[in-house]
Fold each of these.
Amino acid sequence: CPKPVNIPEMVEFLDHLTNPAPPEQFNVLIVDDEPELARLHAATLESAGMICQVVTAPEDVLSVLERFRADLVLMDLHMPDCSGQELASMLRQIPGYVSLPIIFLSSETNQERQFQALQAGADGFLVKPIEPRRLVDEVRLRAERMRTLRSLMVRDSLTGLFNHNTILQFLELAVANARRNTSPLCFAMIDVDHFKLVNDTHGHPAGDHVLMALSRTLRLRLRDSDSIGRYGGEEFAVVLNDTGLKDATELLDALRTDFSRIQFQANGQKFSCTFSAGIATFPNCPDPRRLTETADHALYNAKHAGRNQVAT
Ligand code: GH3
Ligand code: MG
Ligand code: MG
Ligand code: MG
């Protein structure tokens, strides 16, 4: 059996989030020592719009998974060099694959042995031969459910932006990349000014509306390579890859202007909002913790200096 390799935690997972596949289009890795059978299952799933990759040697699974971002693994149980059961429990030890759905597709009909295989950490057991329609339905059902779960785990429900934990994971990944490529990076924290007053004056639903408008403003101007998250209540965080302090300050200032120009309306009353922001840079701040502390401190200074401004 292949040994678990040290794939950087979350990389696989986060890549999935930045480049989501079209809905319904799932990537399925098929592991089976019988090439004809594997290709038959692949053809069945491909005819339903899925993208399949076949692996007939278990020792190739890890290297293929690093290139092919599988939504689900369809795994044979009985294979000469390494059983599907061993392979599944090995995958479960790798942080990036803890939640990857694994379904056994095997000729094994003994229920005791099926159960043992499931205990390795698999999500289902299908018996060969299988009707094509059933195979498609089973795979789609589990892949869809996992996408929904992942989305709930990583996104904020009001704005659809990444949640607090996820944006911090992106920051960690971004710092590692910036260090490797010796490129700059900025981390910014944004906080709506006097937001409590917005709620108190115009009502909580109007406040929610403001938060959604701010998230749209951020999405419109930021690049695909940047990551945006809702850090807390009315606080947002952005990771700007490959960006120096001057560009980041200009960008945040442009966003500040965009946002301040939005006209809101609640109960017949018009109003507008502003935000303050604090920016920290890598490599000045050499690690994620220093970046968040420094951005937070800069934000505090922006508030203290009168709000509606960007501080560094
Ligand atoms: P400052 O300019 O110093 O940031 O003042 P502030 O009023 O914005 O800050 P404060 O921390 O006093 O108030 C934040 C408010 O944000 C309080 C909280 O009820 C509100 N809030 C947090 N999450 C949400 C949300 O999801 N929706 C709405 N409508 N309000 C929220
Ligand atoms: Mg076999
Ligand atoms: Mg505030
Ligand atoms: Mg706040």
Amino acid sequence: MPKKKIKELRNEIDDLNQDIFKLLSKRANIAKEIGDLQTNLGMSSYDPMREKEMLEDILANNQGPFGDATVKSLFKSVFQASMEVGKKADKPKFLTSRGDREDSVVYVGDVPIGGEHAPILIAGPCAIESKEQVDITAAEVAKHGIKLFRGGAFKPRSNPYSFQGIGLEALQWARAACDKHGLQFVAEIMDARDIDMFVEYVDMLQVGARNSQNFTLLKTIGKTNKPVLLKRGLSSTIEEWVMSAEYLMSEGNKNVVLCERGIRTYEQYTRNTLDVSAVALAKQETHLPVIVDVTHSGGRRDLLVPLTKAGLAVGADGIMVEVHPNPAVALSDQKQQLDFDGFDKYLEDTAYKTKLSKKRSEVYGF
Ligand code: PEP
Ligand code: MN
């Protein structure tokens, strides 16, 4: 007889399980509907006040057998589970979003950046200062098997009286030097009106930190298919940085590489603070390649090696570093550019000599 009773009660529990499950699913679907409406209104779907009110309502009717703490923890799990359903459905909502997407690989000429490819190096002077300077630096960079050459022709300077860059002529000198030494040319564009000139002379357009939210410039570049190196703004959140990439992609340009270059913090020993978590997060949240500019991050020559190692350790697809034949007389960034001997040592100390020729997986085992 008791056995029969147990069986009956168990059947009752089975039915209740099914009912609870149906109710939980129904609840999750409604919560998701609310989440979608909130997303469309640009609101966050997490509302701690609403959670608090719901818990208070539930506990007000608690007649046992569970204690309040148990009821709270049971319902917290229910709330959490519903939120997760909404989150999964939300992704990917942007062209930049990771979602289920594989790593994007961006080609600059024949040089791949991202995915399983060995981390690249972009090297060259802060600014292009003369035909000779750009030619000997390009020769030096190419000598090491590096394929991407940087150099500014239009310089975004805080002080309007300091060197502003040579302009068009510098682009022409650098183009000739890159063609001569088999390099791809990366240069910063500051003004949307210069787009045709840049498309003609440059292989990869750099959007500098100060122009990271110049939406007119981003939309103009987005209408081309030139690879873009998008720096993070001086005080941009990761979301703002990624949204700038979204501007480029929403206009049709798929060839976007993100570049972390340090953010402004209260620290004075460094020019900026390299945000390594932003590199890891950008890789996680987007499918775009991410590189680290170690020169402008620290603003210190003595940090170039450790910051390079840190960037690569958190998954960067490459590094940017400034090299100048004679940094002491450079027209910008004297303090942090490497001379040619310093560059040799940098390549040795960061093991970049190997990285440039071997796949990332061979170096890091993943
Ligand atoms: C640069 O790379 O030349 C430069 C000016 O960097 P940022 O925009 O990151 O300051
Ligand atoms: Mn510089």
